[in-house]
Amino acid sequence: IPRWTAIDESASVTVFAGELYGLTAPAAPESSWASDAAHGVCVAHVRLLRKGAQIVLPARASGVARALYVVEPGPQQRSGADDDDDDDDDGRSEDVVRVSRTGLPGWSYAFVAGDVEVEVERVGGDDGEPVEILVLEGC
């Protein structure tokens, strides 16, 4: 399974299906939706290892949908999960990533346009613990 790592080792991306950063995942089974390149399928796992770590997801073809799921920290691991004083005024836990200038807490998701470049930056979370994001793309 191909993996990209930032020069400063602050971020890594593992590509399980499709292509990203010039890396191509092993071929999908013939019966899979992902086996047809016209479907634009990409499944990737992003790890942001410290605050300030960032990646940029490149623009895809028009019609490609993109979803980002912040899977770590989970609901019991979020900073402030047990301390109401750390919650924002709207009751949400602290943001751990910023996706194109929109903050997301752990254990959340965002649907973003696939045909534009998307900046993903770690802005919170516990030091020493990675923030992990599942990226799903396709049409």
Report on the structure:
29% of the residues are buried. The strands form 3 sheets. This protein has a 6-stranded antiparallel β-sheet, with no helix packed on it. It is built from no helices and 12 strands. The two termini are 23 Å apart. Helix content is 0%, strand content 44%. It has strands at 3-5, 11-17, 19-20, 23-24, 42-48, 54-57, 65-72, 95-99, 102-105, 108-113, 118-122, 131-138. It is mainly β and 139 residues long. A hairpin with a 5-residue loop joins strand 1 and strand 2 (11-17). It is globular.
Q: Tell me the Rg in angstroms.
A: 16 Å
Helix content: under 10%
Distance between the termini: 23 Å
Name the average pLDDT: 89
Number of strands: 12
Give the gist of this structure.
The chain is 0% helix and 44% strand.
How do the strands and helices of this protein lay out in sequence?
Layout: E1 3-5, E2 11-17, E3 19-20, E4 23-24, E5 42-48, E6 54-57, E7 65-72, E8 95-99, E9 102-105, E10 108-113, E11 118-122, E12 131-138
Antiparallel strand pairs: 1-2, 2-5, 3-4, 5-12, 6-11, 7-10, 7-12, 8-9, 8-11
Tags for this model:
single chain; mainly beta; six-stranded antiparallel beta sheet; four-stranded antiparallel beta sheet; 139 residues
